[in-house]
Write a structure and sequence with these properties.
There is one protein chain. This protein has 552 residues and is of the alpha+beta class. It is 25% helix and 16% strand. Strand 22 and strand 23 form a beta hairpin.
């Protein structure tokens, strides 16, 4: 008999190994914000979230965990959580652009698989879930639901969604809508679905080859594991019949089947066969296991004594997710999120690592203290992310996508660069001599780490003027303003700060009052205007500044 060994309770990660158990909930931090620890403080909410994404109870409670908590019924009364939106106001079986949909039962069923549909936007994915769930079968637009399917035995794999027995189909589709009952992502009714039918529909599937062992040439209906006289008599009774239990080669019971029966006379040699979907079959030898695409565990083994590798969500390089075993996931260039974890839209995306590389994974694995990565969003790909070192204005560095780095005001160092070799230096605004401003570079007057050009008004520190005496030019030190003046054939170029750092003597426009004050204070240090260049003495330079800024 097949042994059902699929487990959602154990997660084996490439970086950290742990177990999800009821003891993880409640945790220590809040449920509706990142808390940096596994689990969250509300037990019911914590358990519900971790059933959807078990990594939330193994690794720190990150944004992906908060997203789920914000959308599911179990967390509706937790402070800070938004809660579900069932019923909503839009149609259930189409993209309606609003949270939830009008049929409460259908809405709740969909949101139990994809919480985003209830507190985000009911999009095309939500509509496809509705079409695949029996709970939505009577909702207008869902075309009667997935059951019965277009054809095919519920207990055997076939190439269409759903299966022919309505009751069994409804049981399986309620538990595995996308995987077994929708052609949206192309799974159809696979061996996994047939195996679930063996579990959920025992009365229907009793005796099916997919659910029970038909060892070697044991065809008398007893499945006693021995080929003997009863099997010989059964073969004679079925002679010429096509598709009967003793038709081993499929072309009608005949001499070839008789010879096969004689070759198998006596006790059958059996062993456990681990299949690609994580289930186990008891088969008659390695060749039978190979024919099913499985891995034979050896003669005499049984499914109760072996641990078949379990499939789980595998994040692939194109941003999609498939449920694969660790071996198959690695071979496909993906990252396994853990055995038993089901693919959903809260799983995969690109993760920029500190060394400048990128891996496809979940935010739970990307943002751990062990990886210290930056998750780029659900559905993102490493090809889009352009990961590399990002230098920030305070001299710090983190791995970011090119777009995120620029948006945060950082300097991206190039795709594939890492912070260890980036040599990030602080940067800020610089005032150039012509009065313009730039951020970064080595020229101009540096205004401090993380300053921006929006924060400052740069003085013009250079000027020149032609005049009767030939004219003059000057470039002033940082913080001062260049003043160039031609008056009655005499030029003057000085540095000062009158128009920005000094005010006129009378507090208003620069004019006759200021000139008279300058004459009175000539040669002294008034401690302010009219000592416009702050040299400590009122002199010719202050007169030139006054004349250069004369307004009335």
């Amino acid at each position: 008999m097949k042994s059902k060994t699929l487990s959602t309770g154990v997660i084996v990660l490439a970086i950290v190994t742990g177990s999800v158990s009821a003891g993880t909930c409640p945790g220590e931090g809040p449920c509706c914000e990142k808390n940096g620890t596994p689990g969250c403080e509300d037990s019911a909410c914590c358990i519900a979230v971790c059933e959807i994404n078990p990594s939330c109870c193994v690794n720190p409670w990150v944004g992906a965990c908060v997203n789920i908590a914000d959308f599911i019924t179990e967390c509706v009364d937790v402070p800070g959580c938004g809660g579900p939106s069932c019923p909503g106001t839009g149609a259930c079986c189409e993209d309606n652009g609003t949270p939830g949909c009008t049929n409460e039962a259908c809405c709740a069923a969909v949101c139990s698989f994809e919480p985003f549909c209830c507190n985000g936007t009911w999009d095309n994915v939500c509509a496809e879930f509705a079409k695949a769930l029996p709970e939505c079968a009577e909702v207008p637009g869902c075309e009667g639901g997935p059951c019965p399917g277009a054809g095919g035995d519920c207990c055997l794999a076939h190439g269409t969604p759903g299966c022919e027995d309505v009751d069994c189909c409804n049981l399986v589709c309620s538990a595995y809508p996308f995987r077994c009952c929708s052609d949206f992502i192309g799974f159809h009714w696979t061996d996994f679905c047939a195996d679930r039918a063996c579990e959920l529909c025992p009365g229907l599937c009793d005796g099916s080859p997919n659910c029970g062992l038909l060892p070697c040439s044991d065809c008398d209906g007893t499945n006693d594991g021995t080929v003997g006289i009863n099997d010989f008599l059964a073969l004679l009774a079925q002679w010429g019949q096509v598709g009967s239990p003793c038709d081993f080669d499929g072309d009608g019971v005949g001499i070839e089947d008789f010879l096969a029966l004689l070759a198998d006379w006596g006790p059958c040699v059996t062993g456990a066969c681990c299949l690609g979907d994580g289930t186990c079959n008891l088969v008659t030898g390695a060749s039978s296991c190979d024919a099913q695409g499985g891995v034979y565990q050896g003669d005499g083994t049984d499914c109760d004594s072996v641990n078949c590798p379990q499939p789980g969500a595998c994040c692939l390089t194109d941003g999609t997710c498939m449920e694969l075993t660790l071996t198959n996931c690695t071979a496909a260039g993906g990252v396994l999120q853990g055995p038993g974890i089901i693919c959903n839209i809260f799983i995969c995306g690109a993760c920029c690592l500190p060394d400048g590389t990128c891996i496809p994974t979940s935010p739970g694995l990307c943002e751990t203290p062990f990886t210290n990565g930056t998750f780029q969003g659900f559905g993102s790909t490493c090809g889009q992310a352009n990961c590399g070192a990002c230098c920030f204005c305070d001299g710090t560095c983190s791995a970011e996508s090119q777009a995120d780095c620029i948006a945060a005001g950082g300097n991206h160092q190039g795709i594939g660069t890492d912070c260890a070799s980036a040599n990030c230096n602080p940067f800020g605004a610089r005032c150039l001599a012509d009065g313009t401003c730039t951020v970064g570079g080595a020229f101009g007057c540096y205004l401090g780490d993380c300053t921006t050009c929006a924060d400052v008004e740069c003085p013009v520190r250079e000027c020149s003027v032609p005049c009767g005496d030939g004219g003059c030019s000057i470039e002033c030190p940082c913080g001062q303003t260049a003043i160039c003046f031609c008056f009655m054939g005499v030029s003057g170029c000085v540095c000062g700060g009158a128009e920005r750092s000094q005010r006129p003597v009378d507090g208003g426009i620069m004019g006759i009052t200021d000139f008279l004050e300058l004459v009175v204070a000539w040669g002294t240090d008034p401690g302010g205007p009219p000592d416009f260049d702050t040299s400590g003495t009122v002199e010719a330079a202050d007169l030139l500044i006054l004349l250069g800024n004369w307004t009335a």
